[in-house]
C-alpha cells in the first residue's frame, strides 16, 4: 500500500502522543509483556493510528477486552476482524493453489508475509488484513512462473507500468478478472532507495516447508523472515510510512529464532549486504517497545545513531507529524550502504533510474502513446 496525504487526514491535527503510548502498550501486551493500558486517549484517533500501522487487531484480543475508555471503537474492531477473516481466508486458499501450481511446474519458489506467516508468528491467520500472496522465484524462472499464473486465469495488472515494476521493483502483480487476492510475483526483494539483498537465490535455497491444506507450501526460513521484515521496516522508513506492523513482524520473527538461527543471522545479513538494514530495523523494534519490554533485539551499530529512541519511534509509527526533522534520503542511503562510496553510488543510481523510468512511462500514458490496458505503444 502506498500512502498519500489523504490517508493521514484522520490523524493530522492531533499530536497522537497519548494514543502512541496506548498503542505501544497494546502491542507489548500482545507479546505477553506487562504493560498498563492508559485510558486517557481519543479512541477514534487511537483506532486510526493502529489501522494506519496495520495493527488494529492488536489493540485487544476481543472488543470486549478493551478498556472502558476505549469502548467506542469496539464496533470498528469487530468489523475489521470480520473483514480480515474473509480477506485472509481467501488469501490462504490462493496461497495453497499457487504453491501447487508452481510445484507442478517444477519452479523453485517461496512464499513470504501474508496469512501463512501470521500463523507461524502469531498462531493464527487473521492478525492483519492482507490481500496479497507474495511469491519469490529466481529471475531466470520469472517468465515461466508468469506463464503458469496466466494459464490458471491470473491476469497481469498495471500493464502500463509493468516494465517499471519488473525491471526496477523486481515484481509483477497478477489477479483474476473476478477479483480476489493479488499474486505479487517477485524475483527481487526491496525497492530502489535502500540496499537490496545481494543473492536472492539464497532465500530459495533456505526454504522451509509449511503444512497447509494437506500439502506443503515452501516458506522463507526463520532468519530470512527477519531480513524480509527488516527490509519492510526500512522501506517504510525511507518512504515516511507508518510501520508498526513490520516492527511487530520483526520482533516476532526474532523471538521465534532458535539459538543456532540467532547466531547465524548477523552473518547472513552481512552476506546479503543487509547488516545496516537489520541494525536500523532492530533498533526500531527496541524503540517501539522502549520501557515496555526487554531490550534484546538490537543487532550491530545503529546506522543513524543520532536519532534518539523517542524520535525514531515517532518516525516509524507517526511519520505524519509535521514537527519531525527527517534526515535526508541521501543520508539514510549513505548510512544503509555502510558509508561505502561505490555501494552508495550504485544504489543512488538505481533509485534515480527507477524514478526517471516511472515518470517517462506515466508521461507516455498521459499523452496516449502507451495503452493503459495493454501497456504497449499505441
List keywords for this structure.
378 residues, alpha+beta, Beta Polymerase, domain 2, 5-stranded mixed sheet, two-stranded antiparallel sheet, disordered C terminus
Could you give the topology of this structure?
Layout: H1 17-30, H2 43-52, H3 74-105, E1 109-112, H4 114-122, E2 132-137, H5 142-151, E3 155-156, H6 162-169, E4 171-176, E5 179-186, H7 201-205, E6 208-212, E7 215-219, H8 222-239, H9 244-255, H10 259-271, H11 275-288, H12 309-317, H13 329-336, H14 341-367
Helix pairs in contact: 1-2, 6-14, 8-9, 8-10, 8-11, 9-11, 11-12, 13-14
N to C succession of SSEs: HHHEHEHEHEEHEEHHHHHHH
Mind telling me the C-alpha Rg?
Answer: 21 Å
Q: What is the percent of helical residues?
A: 40-55%
Number of helices: 14
**What's the CATH C level?**
Alpha Beta
Give the domain tally.
1
Mean pLDDT: 89
Q: How would you characterize the largest beta sheet?
A: 5 strands, mixed
| General shape | globular
Beta-strand percent range: 5-15%
Number of strands: 7
Structural description of this entry:
The protein has helices spanning 17-30, 43-52, 74-105, 114-122, 142-151, 162-169, 201-205, 222-239, 244-255, 259-271, 275-288, 309-317, 329-336, 341-367; strands at 109-112, 132-137, 155-156, 171-176, 179-186, 208-212, 215-219. It has 14 helices and 7 strands. It is globular and about 55 Å long. The chain has a single domain (5-367), classed as Beta Polymerase, domain 2 (2-Layer Sandwich), CATH 3.30.460.40. The strands form 2 sheets. The chain has a 5-stranded mixed beta sheet. It has 378 residues and is of the alpha+beta class. The longest helix is centred in the N-terminal third of the chain and has 32 residues, at 74-105.
